[in-house]
Structures are given as C-alpha cells and as structure tokens.
Design goal:
The chain is an alpha/beta fold. The protein has one domain: Glycerol-3-phosphate (1)-acyltransferase (3-Layer(aba) Sandwich). It has 11 helices and 9 strands. The strands form 2 sheets. The protein has a 7-stranded mixed beta sheet with strand order 1-9-8-2-5-3-4, sandwiched between helices. It has a two-stranded antiparallel sheet with strand order 6-7. It catalyses: an alpha-Kdo-(2->4)-alpha-Kdo-(2->6)-lipid IVA + a fatty acyl-[ACP] = an alpha-Kdo-(2->4)-alpha-Kdo-(2->6)-(acyl)-lipid IVA + holo-[ACP].
Length: about 325
C-alpha cells in the first residue's frame, strides 16, 4: 500500500471541525508526560460516567472472567480500566506526534534479540500482541528499534485515516501497510523475512474461528495464526507492553518464539494462544481492552452472554 498523501479535498469545510480537534489535541500533547497522564485519568473517569454501553460490556466481561473477585473488587478494576483507556487517548497522540527521541526516553525494552535473530536468519515473524489499552504506543515504541509491517483497516473518515496512518508509519519508514483481508500480501511479507504486527485476541465471528476456552469460557478464536505461520513459514513471537506506575514510562518485552508452532492441530494451537493471552492479561487486567464483546459469538444453542442492545425507534 502506498504512503498516505495529503489531498486538496481534505480542506473541504466538512473536515474543518475534525482539523480543529486534531490541532487542539496536538497542542495539548506537547505538555509534560505526567500532566498528560493526569488528563488521561480525568478523561477515563468521565468516560466511566457517560459511556454506559461500553461500561456494561466491560463490567460483564469482568464478571465472566474474574468470578473469584468480589463485586466491589471488580468495580474497582472496572474504574481503573476506564482510567487506563482515558490515558490511551493521549498515548495515541503521543505516538503520532512526539519526537522519536522523546518517546524513546519512556521505553524499557527487553528481548529485542529474538527479533534480531529472526531477521538475521531471514525468518518471517508474526509479532503476536493483544489488545491492551497501550496497543498504539506499544507499536510506536517497538518501531523505534525494529521495522514492523502492520495489518490495516481503512478508516471511514479520509482525514482521520490520513493522520492516523501518517502517525503510525513514521516510526517504520520502509514498512508495509497490508489490508486486513489481503492474505496473499501478508504471506508474501512473511516469506520475505519481515515482521508483521498481529493480534488474535478478539471475536471476529464464527466463519474463521473455532471455540476453545478463554478464562474458562468457550470463545470464538481465529485459526489464522496457525495458517499464517505454516503458509508464511514464520515464527510466532509474542510481545507485551506494561504502563509502569508513577509515570515511569513503559516496559516492553519481546518474548521468546513459541516452540513447535504450528502444533498438532489448529485447536491445540488456539488453546495454546488463548492460555498465553490469558496469562498476560491476568498480570495487568486493568490495562486490557475489556470494552470489546469478546464472547459475542456463541456455540450453537447457547444464548448471548450480553444484554441485547435496545433497538432504535423507527422515525415516521
């Protein structure tokens, strides 16, 4: 995919409000890091109060995944999760617009040798991550040290799409943005010995998934990780990012490659991946994206685990 280019149509009056908002965000994000964390906490607290439907989804997920916690403990975790989500809004802007040197000062990185070894051997890498609230800044931080290609889904608003892609790709000047459905392009990149960002921890429906446990609940889990690793002749190397307390920055860990992957079956691989993801989430549950309906797709005959969304009234 070509690099994002500015177009004259982006100056149309219908985009002026968005440009104004982006400009104000650019100004705010120039503030010191600790002040941005404080603003993010405030935004998260506000989101907790007003984002009712997302709050209900996150609360339900925490009930399903942490039944051993008391209701009071889960509610405290829920509030912390929304605060983490509010901070992520400013981390997104930081990753788009902060100077690279300023970003680098926040990062503590371990395990980079796993990526370097694969690169030296000409081995493609599925850089497996998960949807923590630190996802955006995690890609930016890792991109300072290693080129990462990425799966890409075009945003409906062309101006936002331009700003987002430009902000992401500046960390990887020779990277490739691959449409999420373009399997052939992804396999080509892997066979060329490159590393591609990939997160298999959301519910993408029944068509390309099988049901295996996650936090003890049957969850639709994509089998694509196995297919990509086999057809792309690639290693699966997980990485995680933790937002450290007291404004101390971030700890990014590139973990060793998964041994003997792909394994004996897609089901065994999916179980293994879900177990790995569950363990990573349990270490920092307040930083995970619980507002996603992870258990939306159910096995045949099972009822929904979430409240039905009220239908919008039909205007006459």
């Amino acid at each position: 995919m070509d690099r994002p280019r500015f177009r004259a149509s982006f100056l149309h009056p219908r985009f002026w409000l968005l440009w104004l908002g982006l400009g104000l965000l650019w100004l705010v994000v120039q503030l010191p890091y600790r002040i941005l964390l404080w603003l993010g906490r405030g935004l998260g607290a506000l989101m907790y109060r007003v984002a009712r439907s997302r709050r209900q989804i996150a609360r339900r997920n925490l009930q399903l995944c942490f039944p051993e916690l008391s209701e009071k403990e889960r509610e405290r975790l829920l509030r912390e999760n929304f605060i983490s989500t509010g901070i992520a809004f400013f981390e997104m802007a930081m990753s788009w617009w902060w100077p690279k040197s300023r970003l680098q000062r926040l990062a503590q990185i371990q395990g980079l040798e796993h990526l370097q070894q694969a690169q030296a051997e000409g081995q493609g890498v599925i850089l497996m991550t998960l949807h923590f609230t630190t996802l955006e800044i995690g890609g930016a931080l890792l991109g300072q040290w290693h080129t990462i290609d990425g799966m890409y889904r075009e945003h409906k608003n062309p101006v936002f799409d331009y700003v987002q892609r430009r902000g992401r790709e500046r960390h990887n000047l020779d990277a490739t943005a691959i449409e999420r459905e373009d399997v052939r392009a992804m396999l080509k990149v892997l066979r060329a010995g490159r590393a591609i960002w990939y997160a298999p921890d959301q519910d993408y429906g029944r068509k390309q998934s099988i049901f295996v446990p996650w936090f003890g609940i049957q969850a639709a889990t994509v089998t694509a990780t196995t297919k990509f690793a086999r057809l792309g002749r690639a290693r699966v190397i997980p990485y995680t990012l933790e937002r450290l307390p007291e404004g101390r920055g971030y700890s990014l860990v590139v973990h060793p490659p998964l041994d003997d992957f792909p394994g004996e079956s897609e089901e065994a691989d999916c179980r293994r991946i879900n177990e790995w993801i569950e363990d990573a989430v349990r270490q920092h549950p307040e930083q995970y994206l619980w507002a996603h309906r992870r258990f939306k797709t159910r096995p045949e005959g099972e009822s929904s685990l979430y409240r039905k969304r009220p239908k919008k009234p039909v205007s006459v």
